[in-house]
Write a structure and sequence with these properties.
Two copies of one chain form a homodimer. The N and C termini of chain A lie far apart (69 Å). Chain A has ten helices and no strands. By secondary structure, the first copy, chain A, is an all-alpha fold. In chain A, helix 1 crosses helix 3 and helix 4 runs antiparallel to helix 7. The interface between A and B is large, with 42 and 42 residues. Chain A binds a DNA duplex through helix 2.
Chain lengths: 209, 209
DNA sequence: CTTGTTATGTTAACAACGCTAAGATAACAC
DNA sequence: GTGTTATCTTAGCGTTGTTAACATAACAAG
């Protein structure tokens, strides 16, 4: 009894269980936080037996990697939007930073999974750094557009890494209660991020006005 | 049969099991990494039953908090040394940053536990921010000594937070393989850290030469 | 010294977890 | 139809965090 062969591409028993598991994991992650993300809970959420995921992922880590991959894709899209909306390269750098931290704040559990899996492999995912339009290249190109010397390759790379580290550091600390009064003093969370970025070398010092 | 009442202060069944558990946890953490740090493994390492720790810690999280507390103390000491050895306030800021990242690199599992417990409570531990000689105050005071306007309280706080975020960001990213070639190009890990910090606003822009 | 209280340790058990092995089922190739 | 293969299920192993029930040893008071 095959149904709608072309319409929804439901090739097998459950359909695309791999997809369903990733979605279930993302749903659980958002709803219950990272500590609730067990393989068995994901299987339950997807409506299959506890052993079913092992036909699609080698182990729990591989499922988390898949979830993280989705996260990096979403982050990349957010950065692309931020860059596109900026009127100038200088403002694009600030937009990128704010967009990065806002993404982390809006998806804290997902962001944590992203970096946890990255640290386990001791490497950022390839898609962040490889390819013409990777997130890393977006930052680097924006720096060059903002006036960094395109011939000083090392300096540009260092500036790019520095910007990324700054944004990540702020992203991880932004949730701490200790900074609530600073957010108020700055007039909101985004303004706080901008103020912090002004103190960081998001745009290299010799380029800043 | 009490033995050496004064010598080693062994007041009870095991002696100071709380202390022994924290030490065992630190030992396991360094040797096997964070994933091997189960309460039962800690109890095993300390030579007691799996339920014994519950007479000294409410749950696993509380043990981890105690381990993290040790870590923050060690970090604070490392920062104090770094500041003391610096010949000028300007260099003190760089020393603080490098010492911070080096601590994280030399104690990666401990550093992870420190920030994991902090994120769970959504707050840095009080001892980092409260008190005259807290780590936070060390950074803030050094910034003032380096020339920041002591009357612009908001600006100084923002600069302090920015420096801390920058250091934390670099500390978390420093282990990624993608940066190996940059470390080589800079002539070592510490030189790489220094180069990154130069791109960050570790010393506020208007104070930099 | 005995007695009671309290702090500290034990064993035994529970539910939940990651994971594997064995078997059932259904799509597909021929 | 038949066989192959991918997918899913049930059952089970060892481990974990945690609790309950009990045992023991230090201490205080008589």
């Amino acid at each position: 009894m095959r149904e709608s062969q072309a319409a929804e591409a439901r090739p097998y028993h459950h359909g695309d269980l791999r997809r369903a598991l990733i979605d279930a994991a993302s749903r659980l992650l958002e709803a219950e936080g990272p500590s609730a993300l067990s393989l068995r809970a994901v299987a339950r959420e997807a409506g299959v037996s506890p052993a079913a995921p092992y036909h699609h992922f080698k182990d729990k880590g591989e499922l988390l990697e898949a979830v993280a991959h989705e996260g990096w894709t979403l982050l990349d899209q957010a950065l692309a939007r931020a860059k596109a909306e900026a009127p100038s390269p200088r403002e694009a750098m600030n937009n990128l930073g704010v967009a990065y931290v806002c993404f982390a704040r809006e998806n804290p559990a997902l962001y944590r999974v992203m970096y946890d899996t990255a640290r386990d492999k001791e490497a950022l995912p390839d898609e962040m750094q490889q390819g013409e339009d990777s997130a890393y290249c977006k930052v680097r190109d924006t720096l060059v557009e903002a006036g960094a010397d395109p011939d000083d390759a090392l300096d540009i790379e260092l500036a790019t890494v520095a910007a990324w580290c700054s944004a990540h550091g702020l992203a991880e600390m932004a949730g701490f209660k200790q900074f609530d009064h600073l957010k108020d003093a700055c007039g909101g969370e985004r303004a706080f991020f901008k103020a912090i970025f002004q103190h960081m070398g998001l745009v290299p010092k010799h380029l800043a006005d």
